[in-house]
Design goal:
Elements: E1 6-8, E2 11-13, H1 24-36, H2 38-51, H3 54-66, H4 71-78, H5 82-94, E3 98-103, E4 106-111, H6 118-124
Antiparallel strand pairs: 1-2, 3-4
Length: 133
């Protein structure tokens, strides 16, 4: 909470509220909704924190576009070393976002469930503007 009075030009921001009546039903409903969805918030936070890295977000986007890719393909596309790509893939795999399958010596990676990331991928398909966020 803000405990200090901040002065910006002629504006004053204080930690006060001028409402007359609190809508207890609304407040309780919101609290119950947040509590009921706590597991979803935790999972989404984990996914978004992993996707917050630019290289990992690019990897996730490419896996979405191509369905599956091997580390060598990702290395060539991203211009990164295979060990660097593999480290990102390991973090994504450990985070439960991607899965893999082996064919001989080659490992192919794909998204486990793209539903959570679809809004991000849709944003990446068009120019990003303040209005689209």
């Amino acid at each position: 909470m803000l405990k200090y009075l901040y002065l910006f030009s002629n504006f004053q921001i204080m930690n006060t509220c001028s409402r007359i009546f609190a809508d207890e039903a609304q407040i309780n409903n919101c609290k119950e909704t947040l509590q009921a969805k706590q597991a979803v918030f935790t999972e989404l936070t984990q996914i978004l924190s992993l996707a917050a890295n630019e290289a990992r977000l690019k990897i996730l986007f490419l896996l979405h576009l191509e369905n599956e890719l091997c580390p060598c393909d990702l290395s060539d596309i991203l211009g990164m070393t295979i060990p660097a790509v593999s480290q990102h893939l390991r973090k994504l795999k450990d985070g439960g976002i991607i899965k893999f399958r082996k064919t001989g010596q080659t490992i192919f990676y794909s998204l486990k469930d793209a539903a959570v990331l679809l809004p991000l991928f849709n944003l990446l398909q068009k120019p990003l503007t303040i209005e689209s966020v």
